[in-house]
Amino acid sequence: MDTSPALLLLLALGFCCPGIHGQSLKIKVKSPKDITQLQKGQKLELECYTDGDRGAFWIRQDKSGTLHFIVLISSTSQTKFSGDQKTSPRFTAHKHDTIYSLVVKSFTPEDEGDYFCLINNNQMLYFSPGQPAFLP
After folding, report:
1. pLDDT of 15 above 80
2. How many domains does the chain have?
3. Quick one: where is this thing mainly located (predicted)?
4. Residue 59, Cα to own-chain centre: how many angstroms?
5. Strand, helix or coil at 82?
6. pTM
7. DSSP conformation class of 98
8. Is residue 46 a contact partner of residue 98, using CB atoms and an 8 Å limit?
9. Of 94, 124, 118, nearest to 21 (Cα)?
């Protein structure tokens, strides 16, 4: 399982207290137009547009509801994948200005689920809307 106590704590904080004191943060996830026609082995790129330079997390929620940490992209473009690795055989991630991208190198049934971008801003955790990615 790809969960850790630190990730679970961050997620709990995000679910408990979004938007305290009227704060808001704009996060938008962009995907290819043909995401509803994904094919096995296809490259999938998701982009997280933010209104600031804070760093971002990418996570995936599988069909059973289990959350899987994928990567942390720092505001200085450093990446940290699951298992505290700097690279991943399945994913790449990068930052350009305030856009945080996640690439699934070769989409498989194991990659199916809802993808979320998370931003930590002033000790508040903000979730993007989920982006579903499933094979037909």
Report:
1. no
2. 1
3. membrane
4. 4
5. helix
6. 0.80
7. T
8. no
9. 124
